[in-house]
């Protein structure tokens, strides 16, 4: 942020009316002064005077001296890669073992290496963990390889650096702090640099910050006037910069430059950050202040926020239950072994299968691997832990990751979530919370740019208390306004419908009082802004378009409106603007500019006019403007304007108020001296500049008011209605006026005519408390009434972080809709936190601007809209999309599918592993409670990794319990996730009882069938292995809804793969059970047992499933039958039987 230099005085603009502006001189330039820049600096880490110990000292064009100081400057080489060749293995393993389950399996593998506890082969016990670690390591290595490759390309790019009296190419990685670099048009900046000079004589440079914050609009930065001339001779340039230490704030910068004994203040507008691109400027010179990892872009390179899904968090409870169950099994095995050892203690020396004594050593025998009764019990317990280790499914974690990747792939490729207007697809930025999309209960939405298009259109104006809202097309409007300059016709790029009477007034009003007010009104719209006019070519070489670019869509709409009425902004430089007023070029010197900030809620510009007068133009929100108006002199006009503003707001229009006044010489000189003092202050600069602005922005004459329409996005009303039917509470949080917000609420169907509105506008804590308590009592007295709560930001000041939060939450929960008006960004996050801290229900926040970032990050799920306000919201979000209406397929379709799939997959993983563990447990009961196993160690290892894992992943990605069409047609089906019907403790215990039955059937049928036979244990083990694989895969097949060739291949292929693996294991002579499968499979009893196991194990489940779905069908089951019959119309049967989603019970 710069200030008008002292040279801007009467001598600077005394001849403003005499300068002739030609088209050849046209350029798009602007200046940024005052409060907004200073306000940005408040975000900076340096709020105190920059002292030597708290700052960096950079000697301009003297990198050797700069880097020889005590400050530790980094080079410009960047490193986004996490690993090196030497650190990859230890660091990657360290990161992976942050998962407690991995530590658990590591302990198991280590225990199995001890001779006393060895149950499996040492290699076999390590294989499952090694496989999971290897897959994750390969994925991490590939990602890091890509980062290394990207770093190499970035570091080897070339830049022009001033060395030995000339600019030479130098690789980015060798650039040092203190060097002067030259950047040419369309080049990317290699580091953070303070501007010294530009190709523009006024020092202005235009940059695009797309790579930094995603915004495509051009922004202006500029060099100090004092450095422009000295930069022509860099070898004699003597000066230094004292700046703050590196920090992440891309919108703030605080520093001082000392040159020729004079100290200059530097702000955010004097620095260009790494990653920005130079636009519409031939070249720019700057000195490097931050390089490499210390640049603001690199300090902000932290990626998407990390969150854990609610389902994964709840899964931890079931893992604890399984761990307790595992401990119970191990304890049972150890206790029964203890009893058996005690009963047979006298026979242990001679029992053939135990043989405690080894008589081959000496006649009296020697204990062979026997350590006493107590130690044997201890060893038995830990051997049981090793044998039953797969009770905790190690493959579940990697399966969940793969399923989420697959789900994200199909979400990003969904045509229903592709935005044609912006050519943007759905983005899944956080892979670990896909299933949370199916459990949302509270939705917090911004309004502007989220529910609306944020494409502002000027609708009407109130000038001098007179309304001009007749927008019938006029003949003059058909061709649009244009002006000829040096034989070139200039036209505004966007046309605006005009009011015929107002247009005639500006054209033919001559010197009437109404015409003067109209001229002042449109002059203020054209001048009081930060818009950059860009002249672009057309197919006709004699016609050029003026494109207004700016950070605010409101300002763009107002400048286009001024152009439509004959006030065409053509040029903006650091010291003046040029406006074509009805064919006459008029130049105005910009003597000062206080940009908009959230405290003042207004902006102002001081212009030196062609008639030698100095005028102050101010525009802002009505809440801040009317307090600085001269109500004594203009009370009638103010009252008339207020009435019109109320009417505009009731129509859903966004409003601004415009005021102005003339400044005499003493007022201007007093302002200028105060402004210069505040601009160079090192302590409290932001507050001082805000105070200067407040002192000058007083006793204004009201000029008029504007009304801008921000139309709803397509499909918003239908989307909100569907979400409400789905049982999702929709809260809209907006900074707009209450009347505007209410109007948008009705048009978006958030509010309905049969809702009773409870409006809370309080100016004190007691008043707010009284209003909330009365509202709570009134709602409780009428449970059937539909209520909408409307509360403003002032009231929220007294509610948040106070004991009124609970009362507000109670009222809001009883309301059908909540609308918060005039809320600040921090209040949005506070409202989300208020709900999160008082309910276990899932929350989702959606927004499109930087003011929504805190809200998005506070919610359980954050969604960013790729809108007109940049991409800050997208960069902070978990998911990103182009339109609000895409929430419907995202939540009702993909959210429902993801939740159902993931919930079933987790339960199925618990089930299939528990079946196998219980088979091993039953075997212990018939082998004298020893931990020997009939199933080979390799089958035990491969069971959860190979035999049964692939079908789980495929079904978790592809299966659909309902089709898209019926899910969209009946939003009530979304309640399945809200009521946790897809994953719950009840389902877990039901699954465990089924597991006990199936494992018992698999074990005992072969046991009794072969009782008394000569079959060996290895043959029985192979039968149990194949039976378990067949049963668990058929169990999965019973639950598959959508069959396709991939599902068939996965399920039946896994059974075939398991059989092949068993055969391969049994043909290896060095492994136990050589040729066992061939011996048992050639008998009819093997196939009979297999058939009997499948029928007996699955019959109870099939019967219970039939009875439940026939006599007590769920919503999903009813909808599936309707879908199966091909009937998608509303049927009376379905409406009657389906659970209706009602508002929560009154509290």
Automatic annotation (TrEMBL):
> Which amino acids does the record list as binding Mg(2+)?
446, 448, 848, 852
What residues sit in the active site? 446 (4-aspartylphosphate intermediate)
Q: Where is the P-type ATPase C-terminal domain?
A: 874-1114
Q: How does it sit in the membrane?
A: Multi-pass membrane protein
Q: CDD domains attached here?
A: P-type_ATPase_APLT_Dnf-like
* InterPro entries, A to Z: ATPase_P-typ_cyto_dom_N, ATPase_P-typ_P_site, ATPase_P-typ_TM_dom_sf, ATPase_P-typ_transduc_dom_A_sf, HAD-like_sf, HAD_sf, P-type_ATPase_IV, P-type_ATPase_N
The alphabetical list of record keywords is:
ATP-binding, Magnesium, Membrane, Metal-binding, Nucleotide-binding, Translocase, Transmembrane, Transmembrane helix
Q: What is this protein called?
A: Phospholipid-transporting ATPase
């Amino acid at each position: 942020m710069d200030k008008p230099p002292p040279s801007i005085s009467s001598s600077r603009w005394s001849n403003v009316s005499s300068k002739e502006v030609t088209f050849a001189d046209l350029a798009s330039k602007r200046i940024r002064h005052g409060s907004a820049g200073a306000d940005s600096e408040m975000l900076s880490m340096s709020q105190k005077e920059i002292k030597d110990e708290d700052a960096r000292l950079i000697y301009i064009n003297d990198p050797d001296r700069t880097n020889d100081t005590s400050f530790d400057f980094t080079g410009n080489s960047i490193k986004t890669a996490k690993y090196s060749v030497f650190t990859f293995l230890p660091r990657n393993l360290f990161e992976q073992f942050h998962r407690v389950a991995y530590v658990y399996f590591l302990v198991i593998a280590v225990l199995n290496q001890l001779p006393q506890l060895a149950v499996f082969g040492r290699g076999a016990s390590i294989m499952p963990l090694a496989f999971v670690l290897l897959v994750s390591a390969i994925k991490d290595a590939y990602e890091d390889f890509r980062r290394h490759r990207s770093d190499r390309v970035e570091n080897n790019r070339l830049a022009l650096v001033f060395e030995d009296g000339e600019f030479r190419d130098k690789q980015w990685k060798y650039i040092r702090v203190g060097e002067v670099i030259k950047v040419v048009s369309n080049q990317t900046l290699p580091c953070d640099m303070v501007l010294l000079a530009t190709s523009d004589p006024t020092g202005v440079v235009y940059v695009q910050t797309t790579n930094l914050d995603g915004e495509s609009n051009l922004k202006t930065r500029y060099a100090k006037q004092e450095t422009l001339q000295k930069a022509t001779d860099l070898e004699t340039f003597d000066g230094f910069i004292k700046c703050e230490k590196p920090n992440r704030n891309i919108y703030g910068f605080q520093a001082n430059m000392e040159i020729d004994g004079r100290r200059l203040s530097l702000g955010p507008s004097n620095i260009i950050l790494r990653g920005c691109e130079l636009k519409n400027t031939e070249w720019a010179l700057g000195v490097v202040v931050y390089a490499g990892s210390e640049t603001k872009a690199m300090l902000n390179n932290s990626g998407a926020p990390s969150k854990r899904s609610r389902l994964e968090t709840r899964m931890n409870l079931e893992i604890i239950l399984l761990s307790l169950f595992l401990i119970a099994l191990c304890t049972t095995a150890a206790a029964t072994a203890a009893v058996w050892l005690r009963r047979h203690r006298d026979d242990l020396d001679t029992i053939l299968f135990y043989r405690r004594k080894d008589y081959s050593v000496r006649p009296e025998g020697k204990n062979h691997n026997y350590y006493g009764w107590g130690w044997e019990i201890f060893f038995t317990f830990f051997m049981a832990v090793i044998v039953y280790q797969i009770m905790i499914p190690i493959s579940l974690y990697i399966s969940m990751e793969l399923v989420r990747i697959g789900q994200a792939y199909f979400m990003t490729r969904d045509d229903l979530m592709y935005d044609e207007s912006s050519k943007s697809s759905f983005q899944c930025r956080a892979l670990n919370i896909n299933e949370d999309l199916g459990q949302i209960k509270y939705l917090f939405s911004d309004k502007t740019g989220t529910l609306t298009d944020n494409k502002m259109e000027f609708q009407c104006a109130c000038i001098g208390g007179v309304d001009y809202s007749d927008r019938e097309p006029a003949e003059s409007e058909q061709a649009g306004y244009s002006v000829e300059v040096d034989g070139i016709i200039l036209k505004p790029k966007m046309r605006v419908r005009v009011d015929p009477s107002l247009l005639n007034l500006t054209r033919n009003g001559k010197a009437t009082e109404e015409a003067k007010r109209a001229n002042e009104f449109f002059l203020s719209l054209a001048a009081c802004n930060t818009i950059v006019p860009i002249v672009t070519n057309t197919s006709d070489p004699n016609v050029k378009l003026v494109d207004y670019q700016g950070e605010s869509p409101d300002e763009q709409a107002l400048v286009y409106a001024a152009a439509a009425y004959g006030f065409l902004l053509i040029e903006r430089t650091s010291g003046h603007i040029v406006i074509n007023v009805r064919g006459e070029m008029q130049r105005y010197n910009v003597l000062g500019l206080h940009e908009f900030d959230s405290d003042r809620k207004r902006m102002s510009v001081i212009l030196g006019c062609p008639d030698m007068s100095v005028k102050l133009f101010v525009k802002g929100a009505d809440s801040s403007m009317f307090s600085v108006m001269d109500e004594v002199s203009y009370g009638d006009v103010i009252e008339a304007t207020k009435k019109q503003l109320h009417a505009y707001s009731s129509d859903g229009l966004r409003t601004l108020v415009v005021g102005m006044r003339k400044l005499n010489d003493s007022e201007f000189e007093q302002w200028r001296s105060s402004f210069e003092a505040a601009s160079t202050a090192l302590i409290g600069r932001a507050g001082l500049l805000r105070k200067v602005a407040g002192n000058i922005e007083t006793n204004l004459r009201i000029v008029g008011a504007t009304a801008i329409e921000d139309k709803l996005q397509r499909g918003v009303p239908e989307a909100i209605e569907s979400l409400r039917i789905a049982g999702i509470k929709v809260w809209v949080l907006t900074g707009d006026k209450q009347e505007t917000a209410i109007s948008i609420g009705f048009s978006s169907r958030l509010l309905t005519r049969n809702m009773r509105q409870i409006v809370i506008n309080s100016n004190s804590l007691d008043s707010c408390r009284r209003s909330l308590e009365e509202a709570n009592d009134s709602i409780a007295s009428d449970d059937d009434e539909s209520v909408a709560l409307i509360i403003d930001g002032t009231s929220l000041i007294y509610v948040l972080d106070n004991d009124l939060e609970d009362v507000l939450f109670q009222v809001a929960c009883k309301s059908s809709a909540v609308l918060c008006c005039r809320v600040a960004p921090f209040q949005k996050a506070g409202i989300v936190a208020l709900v999160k801290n008082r309910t276990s229900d899932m929350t989702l926040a959606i927004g499109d601007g930087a003011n929504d970032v805190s809200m998005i990050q506070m919610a359980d799920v954050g969604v960013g809209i790729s809108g007109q306000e940049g991409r800050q919201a997208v960069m902070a979000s978990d998911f990103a999309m182009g339109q609000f209406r895409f929430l419907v397929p995202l939540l009702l379709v993909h959210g429902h599918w993801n939740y159902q799939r993931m919930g079933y997959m987790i339960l199925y993983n618990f089930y299939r592993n528990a079946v196998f563990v219980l088979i091993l447990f039953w075997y212990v009961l018939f082998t004298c409670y020893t931990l020997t196993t009939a199933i080979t160690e390799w089958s035990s290892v491969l069971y959860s990794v190979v035999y049964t894992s692939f079908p789980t992943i495929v079904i978790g990605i592809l299966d659909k319990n309902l089709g898209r069409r019926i899910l969209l047609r009946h939003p009530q089906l979304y309640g399945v996730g809200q009521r946790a019907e897809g994953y719950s403790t009840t389902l877990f215990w039901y699954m465990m009882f089924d597991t006990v039955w199936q494992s018992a059937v698999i074990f005992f049928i072969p046991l009794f069938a072969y009782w008394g036979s000569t079959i060996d244990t290895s043959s029985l083990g192979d039968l149990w292995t194949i039976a378990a694989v067949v049963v668990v895969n058929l169990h999965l097949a019973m639950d598959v809804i959508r069959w396709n060739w991939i599902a068939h291949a996965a399920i039946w292929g896994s059974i075939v793969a398991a059989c092949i693996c068993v055969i391969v294991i049994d043909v290896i002579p060095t492994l136990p059970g050589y040729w066992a499968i061939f011996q048992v499979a050639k008998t009819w009893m093997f196939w009979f047992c297999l058939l009997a196991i499948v029928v007996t194990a699955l019959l109870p489940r099939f019967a219970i499933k039939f009875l439940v779905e026939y006599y007590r069908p769920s919503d999903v089951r009813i909808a599936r039958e309707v879908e199966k019959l091909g009937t998608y119309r509303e049927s009376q049967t379905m409406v009657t039987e389906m659970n209706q989603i009602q508002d929560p019970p009154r509290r």
